[in-house]
Amino acid sequence: MTAREDAVSPPTIARDDYKIMVLLVDDQPIIGEAIRRALIGQPDIHFHFNPDPFEALSVAEQVKPTVILQDLVMPGVTGLALLTQYRSSPTLKGVPVIVLSTTEEPAVKSEAFSLGANDYLVKLPDSIELVARIRHHSRAYLNQIQRDEAYRALHESQRQLVEKNLELERLTHVDGLTGLSNRRYLDEFMEIQWRRSRRKGEPLSVLMIDVDDFKRYNDHYGHLAGDEVLKKLANIIQDSCRRPTDLAARFGGEEFAVVLSPSSPDETRVMGEKIRAEVERAALPHRESSVATIVTVSVGGASQIPTADSSFPSVIQAADESLYDAKRGGRNRVIVRG
Ligand SMILES: Nc1nc2c(ncn2[C@@H]2O[C@H](COP(=O)(O)OP(=O)(O)OP(=O)(O)O)[C@@H](O)[C@H]2O)c(=O)[nH]1
C-alpha cells in the first residue's frame, strides 16, 4: 500500500485485535455442539451457545456478540420474531445476524432479509464457509464501530474547537482588568453603529468618563488599590447600560467610554449624570482628591447624526473635548455637546 493510499483508507483494526464473539441461538444442543466443533482451531473466535430463545435478547445484550447465528424454528418463539427484537434493541440493532435455516425456501429467505438479516445459511454449512462468513460479518461490524467512534471523537474535537474559538474571540474583545469591552471592540462597534445611525438618520452618542485625580489615588493608596477602583467603576458603568444597544468599554488607562445609540443630547446628559451620581453614591474613599473625599468622575459627552463626510472618531473627539471642559470646569461634573 502506498503512503497516499494509507492516508485515505478508512481506519481498520489489526487482525490480532479482533475479538470475534459468535452467539448461536438454537434450541437444539446438537447444533450448538456442531458449531462449537466447527470453530475449534479459530483462537480469535469466541463462541457462546444459547439454547433458550426466551433468553436470547438478554443473553445477547450481555455477551455483546459481533455476529448472531439465529435458528429460525424454535419452540414458543420464531427466529424471525427474535430478529425483529434485535433490530429494535439500541445495543443490538447493528449486530449482524446470520439466519440458520433448514430450508432454501425463497419466501422465508425474503422475509428474513426484509426483517434485517444480513445473511442466510442452510444448516449445517461446512466449517470453511461458516468461519469465512463469521469473519466477514464481524470485521464489517467492528470496522463500523471503529468508524462510529472515530466520527464521535472528531465531532467532539470539532465542538471543542468551536468553543475555544468563541472563547478566544470573546477574549480578544474584552479588557482583562475590568471585563468591559476593550478599545479594539469599541472601535469595531462604533464603526458598525456609525453606519447604522447614518442609514437611519439617528444620533449616535458617546460618553467619555475619566476618574478625577487618579494619579494622586495611585500615589496614595497604591496601584493595586487603583486597579480595584477601576473594576468597581467598570461595574457601575456597566450596570448603568440597560439597553441592549448600549456599550460600555475601557477606553484606556483610567478612562471609560459608553456608546449610546440612538440617544439625543438630553438623554446622553441624563445617562452621564446617572453614572456620575452612581460613582458618588459608591463613596469610595479618596483622601487626596482635589474635589471631594471620595472617588469622583468627570464625564464628557457628544451626540452626532452621522453624515457622508464624517466618521465615528469625530464623535469621540467631541466627547473628549467635553471631558476636557468638565475637568477644567472643576471635575465631578457632566458636560455634553449636541
Ligand atoms: N491603578 C491603575 N492606574 C492606572 C491604570 N491606567 C492608568 N492609570 C493611572 O491613572 C493616572 C492618570 O493620571 P492623570 O492622567 O494625571 O490624571 P488624573 O490624576 O486622574 O487627573 P485628572 O484626570 O486631571 O483628574 C496615572 O497615574 C496612571 O498611572 C490602571 O490600569 N491601573
State the domain count: 2
Q: Using only CA atoms, what is the Rg? A: 38 Å
What sort of overall outline do the alpha carbons produce when their principal axes are compared? Answer: rod-shaped
What is the beta-strand fraction?
15-25%
The CATH H-level homologous superfamily of the largest domain: Reverse transcriptase/Diguanylate cyclase domain
At CATH's second level, what is the architecture of the largest domain? 2-Layer Sandwich
CATH class of the largest domain: Alpha Beta
Number of strands: 10
Give the proportion of residues in helices: 40-55%
Which class do the helix and strand fractions yield?
Answer: alpha/beta
Largest beta sheet, briefly?
Answer: 5 strands, parallel
Low-confidence stretches: 1-16
Series of secondary-structure elements, N-terminal to C-terminal? HEHEHEHEHEHHEHHEEHEHE
Catalytic activity: 2 GTP = 3',3'-c-di-GMP + 2 diphosphate
Pfam families: GGDEF, Response_reg
GO molecular function: diguanylate cyclase activity
Enzyme class: transferase
Question: What does it look like?
Answer:
GO terms for molecular function: diguanylate cyclase activity. Its EC number is 2.7.7.65. The protein is α/β, with parallel strands linked by helices. The chain folds into two domains: 3-149, Response regulator (Rossmann fold, 3-Layer(aba) Sandwich); 183-337, 2-Layer Sandwich (Alpha-Beta Plaits), CATH 3.30.70. It has helices spanning 3-8, 29-39, 56-63, 79-88, 106-114, 127-172, 183-200, 214-221, 223-240, 265-282, 313-328, and strands at 20-25, 45-50, 67-71, 97-101, 119-122, 204-211, 247-252, 255-260, 297-304, 334-337. α2 (29-39) links the parallel β1 and β2 (45-50). α8 (214-221) crosses α9 (223-240) and α9 packs across α10 (265-282). Guanosine-5'-triphosphate binds next to β6, α8 and α9.
